[in-house]
Description:
Blueprint: E1 2-6, E2 12-17, E3 21-28, E4 34-40, E5 43-49, E6 58-61, E7 68-74, E8 77-82, E9 87-91
Antiparallel strand pairs: 1-2, 3-4, 4-5, 5-6, 7-8, 8-9
Amino acid sequence: xxxxxxxxxxxxxxxxxxxxxxxxxxxxxxxxxxxxxxxxxxxxxxxxxxxxxxxxxxxxxxxxxxxxxxxxxxxxxxxxxxxxxxxxxxxxxxxxx
Length: 97
């Protein structure tokens, strides 16, 4: 799967490929960082990508391998909801590299 950043004139500003099954873009913040979560056996994985960079800012693996149904980004925290009824809260205060 890919995340592609385009401007209003269809100019390419970033293009990153990631290897997560059924990945969902949870949010894009004001700095154009994309937060993607999805199944990465044997667990759920979330990755943050900055526009223009091919390497992730951070990656975190969570306990279970589940289907992501959505989430939200609020100051200092990324929430990820799964079809199995779990809600994960990922805080920026945790060293997740």
